[in-house]
Design a protein that fits this description.
- It contains eight helices and no strands.
- It is mostly helical.
- Helix 2 runs parallel beside helix 4 and helix 6 packs antiparallel against helix 8.
- The protein starts with a helix and ends with a helix.
- The mean pLDDT is 94.
Amino acid sequence: MNIEQNKLLENYIENDVRENLIILALDYEDKIDLNKIADYFIKIKDIFYICELICTSSEYLDLEKIFKKIIDTKDKTFIFFILTNESIKNVINEKYLMRLEKAIN
């Protein structure tokens, strides 16, 4: 990741500019640390943007770590809405859905 992209990433997280984070992720998905963006969306429990990031850039994400962090929130509502997101169901491996389901039961 170059310095300019890194500064943008940090600035968008610091100032909670979620839409710009997604745009940055889409524009530089193979050049920036998308897991850092995912961590932020999980931390603030933004269901819409974490699902969008996973759906658009799953091949560049560490899905094992992401789903572990989602489950580690222990927020059943957050986990439920990710589990029931139709877009997510079409993109990720069934094992992640099973882990989410187990976490809310």
